[in-house]
Fold this protein.
Amino acid sequence: MSIAFLHTAALHQATFDRLLAERAFHGPVHHLVRDDLLQTARDLGLDAVAEDVTRLLTDLAKNADAVVCTCSTLGPLADLVAERHPQVIRIDRPLMEAALTCGPNILLAYCLESTSAPSLNLLADCARAAELPLSPRPLHCGTAWSHFERGDMLAYAAAIARDIDAEIAADGRPDCILLAQASMQVAAPLLAEHGLPVLTLPPLAADRAIALTR
């Protein structure tokens, strides 16, 4: 009854510790932080980190009932490891599956270009598997990431919310708002005024991980 995490940002450790505590999970929890993996993947592509990510997730799976890769950019590599170790999950899969229950018009917001293709491809795969219609609206919140890199989470959240507000004002209300990176959940409270489902990665991933330990 143990859970392990592979993170590319240290702040996710506290997030998941809080979520697991709120869900009364009392098993062992292991966090591994490798922020270099995301930067390398952004600079050189997924192939440049494939060997390291595969090895790390495989090693974590040897001693954990559930392993969560919390970086959306690395998600496709987690899927490959999951073919041999089904307890390995990519953080965004539960989110994509939940978004499809809201309707086909999904506003998928992301801050890093490296997240765009993995997120959209996974959403499309989930829609095909569920035989559900899909009309995704990808939105690049490109000005926000510099605030995250400086550790200014208030400015980060505000920048994400501004871009989403502008998108909805210009093109209408979606069926739901999907925040495609774990760090983006800080913007969720700023989006409540739209009266739409705002789906974030960490809570759903925590639920899936706990379910795998039972």
Remarks:
- The mean pLDDT is 96.
- The CA atoms of residues 74 and 96 lie 15 Å apart.
- The radius of gyration is 16 Å.
